[in-house]
Amino acid sequence: MTIDALPAPGPLLRADSISRSYGRTPALREASLSVTAGEILAIMGPSGSGKSTLLHCLAGIFTPDTGQVWFDGHRLDTLGDAGRSRLRRTAFGFVFQFGQLVPELTAADNVALPLLLGRTGRRHAYQRARGWLERLELDGLGERRTGELSGGQAQRVAIARALVTRPKVIFADEPTGALDSLAGEKVMDLLVGLARQEGVTVIVVTHDSRVAACADREVIVRDGKVTDPYADEYAGEAVR
Amino acid sequence: MTFWLGLRLSLRGGREAAVRLALVAAAVAMGVTVLLSTVALFNAFRVTAERPCWECTTGSAPAGWALGATQGAALWNHRQDSYAGRPIERLDVAVLDPAAPAPAVPGVPALPAAGRFYVSPALAELMAAVPREQLADRFPGARAGLVGRAALSGPDDLVAVVGRTPGELAGMAGTVAVDTVATFPAAQDPAADDLTALYEHGFGIAAIGLIVPLLVLVGTATRLAAARREARFAAVRLAGATARQINAIASADAALGALLGALAGVALFQAVRPALAGVAITGSRFFPDVVTPTAPQYAIVIAGVPLAAAAAAVWSLRRVRITPLGAARRTRASAPGWWRVLPLLAGLGLFAGPAFAGGGREPDPLLADAGLALIMVGLMVAGPWLTMLAARLAARLTRGAATLLAARRLAAEPKAAFRSVNGIVLAVFIGTAVAGIVPAVVSGQLAAGDGTLNEVMRVPFGYADAAPGRPLPPGEADELLAEVGAHPGVTVLPIYRRTTTQDPPAAPLPCDPGPGCRLDFMLGHVVSCDDLARFPALGACAPGVRAVTADFNRLLTSDNLLSVDRNLPIVDPTSPSAPAGTGTGKDVGSGSGNDADSGKAGAAASDGLSLAAVLIRADDPAVRERIRTSLTPYVARSGSAETPLTFAEVARFREVLLDQVERVALAIVALTLLVAGCGLLVAVAGGVVERRQPFTLLRLSGTPTRTLSLVVVLETAVPVLLAALVAAAAGFGVAGPVIDQLAIKSAPAALPGAGYLLTVGGGLLAALLIVLAGLPLLRRVTAPDNARFE
């Protein structure tokens, strides 16, 4: 599969009637969603509604029990582990509430990590990592371990890491959940601003309306179902 | 690149990573040191066993010697002597043609001329330290030099090569003519005893016994703080790493720690090597330079340990599924079932029952081995179930927070808790069994004949047709008895051979020979009842009987005093009196000191009886050695292969062998406990780091550090003590039937000695103290100001 395919005329990412259960507990029920390239989408909903599960299915972290997930014209849910790992490394970026950084590594190491895993030369990888750290106002902190950074700084490192591979989609799950309002606002400004500059699609899960306000569009997940006013527009349309 | 990432995570991952790396390296270093020490001792043993066995030289039949000049040949008489229980290898040689090159003995420049001798350095030292008549007089002539190490197994060997004239040697029984000296290893000598195989077997078992705790140690070390590392790996997976890349990172991380540990272990081994060379693990020291691993063995350890660690790391990841969101167990641990105790019970039952059924029946070695194997496997299998039971009981009976926390965790994860204790279980079991058996058997050896034979020296000549050598003819017997009787404080029992003996019957014997069953064909010896009365342990004649026929073979030949004891008394009132025509119709000699009775010996001898053996009691050790020195020419002339030894010395040879077995076993136990202790420390440290978050939360919510420390100590101490208790009970359970079989009934009860208490008790205590070494880590990692949860 070639990830760097030509831009699809339809949605960049699309879920068709996906369901996912944890044991006997359903998390998603026939959920459908479409996201266009460059769009910033907020997924909202109460706790336990299935919004994170939806995000993980869209990112290929989870495989839905039923239904299909398409990315850039290719089935994602049938892709093997290695293929999905490559997608995460090249086409996707992640900003989670916590846990996405390796605390033993420095900020620069963490940002360079996806490039290093993709066999980019070390020098080039660190050059690009430093560049992104500068853009995220973290210059001078590159040699600090992430455990030594504040929560806001750590989230900016996560954003830098998410963007360093020039991904097509950034998946953000409660990116400001562990931050105070000021730091959260700054993180969101940077994430949204850079995404727009780079033309990156952002799918952000949040229950914070201020975060959702940064998005172009928002959908609501409730009891595993998605309320998406644009879903019908794409229904039945063939995906390339 | 991923390999580099693994190294990066290990080397520059901050304090926690450094602590982890140091712990892994230290644990592996300890394991490698132990492994190299075992390999070095095994090499030393093998190198020594490969030494050319000049003592194995055989020659042509004694008939038809050309005592004149025979080119390239020598007369050769090799036998064993002894001083204070220490064996002396003695070779008397005579060069037949001094002008021609003679056969060469390794370590000796040339065969000594008559009146010259070579001795090993240890023998030279001993000769200089004791009175001349006790030892040096045994070697006539002047010292020509020292025997070199090519002829020796170690620096403590006592060896003498004595030059004689051909005429002197020709008069000695057992002399052969040789033209070449044997150069094959002692292990290949068909006549050699099976000690080499025994030791090789022992080292093999030791290696296997050590490998298990070593692998557990390396495995535990590489899985240190596994949960936290798996969380890191999940983060790396989120960044796009494949499962294979995660394996590579984990392998690099594990291999680095193991490599550093292996190198440190090699360095540590160099530090302990001189001390190791001084350990007489097989009873005598090895030459220091042979106590070393070979270059390929070093290479295998340095390369193999990191590879094993890398493989262990990858293997451990098979049990978890690392996803970008975290790690999940692939399998759910189930509670151990009661069936786990069945193999242990079956093994104990088999061992105590069918294998050692008693009743005088010989034990069945196959059943005994099967029973032992079942017990050892059973201990490891039953451990988790017993731990769970003890934990549940403790949780029910105790109310303290620490006990509750520890008991609940042990009950929930008994297999994990017991994993690091496996090595201790086997060590305690083996140590207890061996230390239980050996002192009882050794003390039993000295209890033969209620201990009254201990200072009695047995001097066999040709005591039976099948025995090497010939009995002393009457003239020589007179001379010997007079010479021995001249020493003060000496009591003698001459044992004569009947002139005619009968062959064993073709039909099956009507009873098992022994007390109560004396068959006529066996009654080949004759003793005077008066002389016998001075050795009451051997029995007594019926009143009025002057001399009896009896079977002294077992007394004269057995190297196991248990066999001797079982054959006592040799004479009882039912023993047949010596019939006329054997020379015993009248007085059979008496050699009790220098009294007038000694003339009776002459009477017996004149009646045609030859001297088969003499029992001599001399309580003064100096007198004993003088007698031994004076006996040397008689023994040489008779050609007897038996060295004059007291029964205590005979027992001591067995005691030395058993002590060696015990020493080797306890050395293995000590090393195993050391390795297991390291494994415990690593497991404790790993457990603390792993549970940093819940422990920190407990501290934040007001739980005192003391309570948390107690939790950690209890979690480790309960399985250790429980395992030690069960293993020790199983060890004594195994020792019981063996002691019953091997020890003399009248022997006083002997408990495991100081070596056992020091090794097993001290080892367990050290293991528990090692656990305490992990507590400062607990305090540090759970400090409230560290409470950051990423």
Explain this structure.
The complex is a heterodimer of chains A (240) and B (790). Chain A is globular and about 45 Å long. In chain A, 34% of the residues lie in helices and 24% in strands. The model of chain A is unreliable at 1-8 and 235-240 (pLDDT under 50). In chain A, helix 3 (107-117) packs across helix 4 and helix 3 (107-117) packs parallel to helix 5. Chain A is α/β, with parallel strands linked by helices. By secondary structure, chain B is α+β, with helices and mostly antiparallel strands. Chain B has four domains: 1-50 and 193-332, no CATH class; 57-184, no CATH class; 344-450 and 647-783, no CATH class; 462-639, no CATH class. Chain B contains 24 helices and 14 strands. Chain B has helices at residues 2-11, 14-49, 121-129, 166-170, 195-222, 226-238, 243-277, 295-318, 342-355, 365-397, 401-412, 414-419, 422-445, 474-485, 529-532, 553-557, 561-566, 598-606, 621-638, 647-690, 692-700, 705-742, 754-773, 775-781, and strands at 74-83, 86-95, 116-119, 142-146, 159-163, 176-178, 320-323, 326-329, 456-460, 490-497, 525-528, 547-550, 610-618, 645-646. A six-stranded mixed sheet of chain B has the order 4-3-5-2-1-6. Chain B has a six-stranded antiparallel sheet with strand order 12-11-10-13-9-14. The longest helix of chain B is centred in the C-terminal third of the chain and has 44 residues, at 647-690. Chain B is elongated. The two termini of chain B are 26 Å apart. The chains are: A alpha/beta (240), B alpha+beta (790). Chains A and B meet through helix 2 and helix 3 of A and helix 1, helix 2, helix 6 and helix 7 of B.
